[in-house]
Design a protein that fits this description.
Number of helices: 5
Strand content: 15-25%
Helix content: 25-40%
Order of helices and strands: HHEHHEEEEEH
Radius of gyration: 17 Å
Largest sheet: 3 strands, antiparallel
């Protein structure tokens, strides 16, 4: 059973066939699928699943804090099931590929006190942008 499915079961979330398929599609390392990609993969496993069900399930998973929405600068939102393991993202500005990365150190340490403007900062999101090896060859 996947990490996401285990977490959902532990929460007592009702796992219908449709919800289970969406969770299974999201399982894996470095998974950052769009809603349409989740739908396409889910229909292979469960042809009768609807677009609305996929979108609603993704929304519920985000609301539960079990999946993270990853914005991609003008591209479709992506969904990351790695919600319980602190990490940042490395994104290709060419094709939009996303990888989870684990930089050394706390990003909060890189924000000087003079730039906090009195805020009590509790977390930071950092996205690294670059060009993946495939786009670099193109």
């Amino acid at each position: 059973m996947s990490d996401l499915l285990e977490r959902l079961r532990g929460r007592g979330w009702r796992l219908t066939a449709q919800r289970r398929v969406v969770a299974e599609v999201l399982d894996g390392e470095h998974v950052h699928l769009t809603a349409d990609e989740v739908l396409a993969r889910a229909t292979v496993k469960l042809p009768e699943i609807s677009r609305a069900t996929v979108y609603n399930t993704l929304g519920e998973l985000v609301s539960l804090g079990e999946v993270i929405e990853v914005p991609t600068n003008g591209r479709a939102m992506r969904y990351d099931p790695n919600a319980h393991h602190p990490h940042q993202h490395l994104t290709c500005s060419g094709c939009g590929a996303i990888r989870d990365v684990h930089p050394v150190g706390d990003p909060l340490d890189h924000l000087p006190d003079t730039e906090r403007f009195g805020f009590s900062v509790s977390e930071a999101e950092v996205t690294y942008w670059g060009v993946c090896p495939e786009c670099a060859l193109a």
